[in-house]
Amino acid sequence: MRADKTVVAITALMVLLMSAACQSNGSLGQELPTLIVLPTLSPSPAPTAFPTRDIRPLPTAVPTAASTPAPLIVPTDTPSPALSPEATPAATTLPDRFVFGQSVEGRDLIGYRIGSGERVLMLVGAVHGGFEQHTSDLIEQLADHYRSTPANVLPQVSLVLIPALNPDGLARGRVLAGRLNANGVDLNRNWPCGWSPNAVFRDQPVGAGAEPLDQPETRALAALIEDLQPGAVLFFHAAAAGVFAGDCGGDAGSAAMSAVFGAAASYAYGSDFSDYVVTGTGPAWVNSIGIPSADVELTSATDPEFDRNLAGVQAVQCWLAPMSPACA
Ligand SMILES: [Zn+2]
């Protein structure tokens, strides 16, 4: 009997946590990210000379140093806030695998570029680490799909995929602590727009940082976004089942983009997140700098829901590049 009650209590807690959303809600002058090339799968000749700073051992999952191309250091002095929509996107200079920063515990923040068009569609997974591991799985599955089916990336588009904004939390696994970064900060409460030191996850207080963008993960992503000026940024979470447009007093196209994604992926859209008050979210800040953005909340707490999200990404590509014959 007692064991039964324990099981019921644990189950109820899990349901509560899994069903909880992680939804969304300034200008920035931080330095731009230092981009480091990860080796491609087919080794290429090493440059004859390269900078000596910011070079460090590569992860064990990649080829050994003998076949490793030397890192490329991208200039870091571009005044990103001054970038206009007409500025030449930096995505076309991105390597196909790159490191744009490090986590609190020193793990690489890794991105993939697939496609070479000037209109960037950025997809971000595992903002909430291992607590939403399947969102990272989704980004990896999408990367695998587009690498094996490159024709599905429109010529006008570059996909920039970030499988895990919170690799430290990802390493902790599917526990509540895995939701936060290694400083105990919720990385979807640390952005400038609508930021509050008193952030919550449902009815629980969570760290929001001492000030907006004081965490290495959010700061690195903000700088990358300001550098690339994407056409749209989608953050994947679970499991509130819906697409929630970034909103920070004004719409940069987030609502329209959310409708396109939601209709194609068969997720609800058009409503504000109302389960509880969220502050300082990523999509709100991205919207505030004039870039369409949304939280995509998967329906499942474990299933990446690949097919419907692939359909959504295809639709947003066409939204970004409606002139493409593939979108007729
Ligand atoms: Zn989340």
Textual characterization of the structure:
This protein has a single domain, classed as Zn peptidases (Aminopeptidase). 27% of the residues lie in helices and 15% in strands. An eight-stranded mixed beta sheet has the order 1-2-3-5-4-8-10-9, with helices on both faces. A two-stranded antiparallel ribbon has the order 6-7. The chain is an alpha/beta fold and 328 residues long. Helix 5 packs across helix 7. Zinc ion is lined by residues 22, 127-128, 132, 188, 237.
Summarize it.
The protein is α/β, with parallel strands linked by helices and 328 residues long.
Question: Which runs of at least 5 residues are low in confidence (pLDDT < 50)?
Answer: 13-21, 23-33, 41-88
Q: CATH architecture, please?
A: 3-Layer(aba) Sandwich
Q: Percent of residues in beta strands? A: 15-25%
Whole-number count of domains: 1
CATH class designation: Alpha Beta
Cα-atom Rg, whole angstroms?
A: 19 Å
Output the number of helix runs. 7
Helix and strand run: HEEEEHEHEEHEEHHEH
The third-level CATH topology is Aminopeptidase
Count of individual beta strands: 10
The biggest beta sheet is recorded as:
8 strands, mixed
User: Span from first to last CA?
Assistant: 62 Å
Structural classification? alpha/beta
Properties at a glance:
328 residues, alpha/beta, Aminopeptidase, eight-stranded mixed beta sheet, 27% helix, binds zinc ion
